[in-house]
Amino acid sequence: MNDEILNNAKQKKIFFIESHTNRDRKLESPRPACSVESAARTNPDMDIYFIFVTDSDGIDMQYSDLIDVFMSYDNIHLRFLNPVEFSKGTILEKFFHDNKLNDSIHKIEHMSDILRVLLLNKYGGQYLDLDVLSLIQLSAINQVNFACCEDKNVVTNAVLNLDLDKGFDVSSLYLRKLALNYKPKSWSANGPIMLTSIVKSFCPGIDLIIENSTKCDEYFTTLPRDKCYPLTYGVWKKMYNEESPDEVLKIIKKSEAIFVHFWNKMQEFDKKIYKLPFTSHAAYIELAKEYCPSVYKTLERYFK
């Protein structure tokens, strides 16, 4: 996790995190790969870091068609991160040394919640969840230090931009809160709930309405829900529905969305994996054809 691009504060960066920790690495799932490719295509001026979390020194990244897709982009970089080593010298060094995540009932999600803040605190840049498609170039947002509102008075950490200036103050406070108030049994306490409280601490009295962007002095901007969540969690299944692709695509176009969150985790809660045949005309497939065409071309049967 130490190279010239990462350590160049002027170079713009986007981070994705695969927080499963295992010894053998084979990138097999096209959905997260689609998110990474969409970011690389829409942001040729930025370096895209796909971070694999590891708890061992021995790493075997097995090649696949999806790895070949990544290698075809000059701005996509694959890196490995050992949390214990990476956290040394930070306020979370003891947290990882004592393996506090062992107490978590959402270990994979909490690992990602924490590491995204450490990465942005150290390097600055943009973090995106692996179920977020990038539709336009980030420079068009013309903002630094922003996240998205998912609902009224809730700021999510699925899309999080923090620089090394004012954003460093935000990420530093976030790390202190994680060190002191980590909640191992809560799904969202260390993510959206904590981020929302931090934004409000920098912006007393702020009303995080979802209809319009809310800017708090120089510290933070909250993007409106429809720019990141044109399809809310209440209707997320429409993304995978063969019967309403035109309706979904029209909603996305009308909202002038910057990102599309495709709610991959909701499938786990729904206890059903929505495997889409690559011949499907569901909205998500249509988006994949446009925003991650190289990943789409690797599909042999399903987009899952």
UniProtKB/TrEMBL annotation:
GO terms for molecular function: hexosyltransferase activity. Residues 166-298 form the Alpha 1,4-glycosyltransferase domain. InterPro entries: A1-4-GlycosylTfrase_dom, Glycosyltransf_32, GlycoTrfase_DXD_sugar-bd_CS, Nucleotide-diphossugar_trans. Keywords: Glycosyltransferase, Golgi apparatus, Membrane, Transferase. SUPFAM superfamilies: Nucleotide-diphospho-sugar transferases (SSF53448). Signal peptide: none annotated. It comes from the Eukaryota. It comes from Polypedilum vanderplanki. This is Alpha 1,4-glycosyltransferase domain-containing protein. It is a single-pass type II membrane protein. Its main location: Golgi. It is found in: Golgi apparatus membrane. Belongs to the glycosyltransferase 32 family. One of its GO terms (cellular component) is Golgi membrane. One of its GO terms (biological process) is glycosphingolipid biosynthetic process.
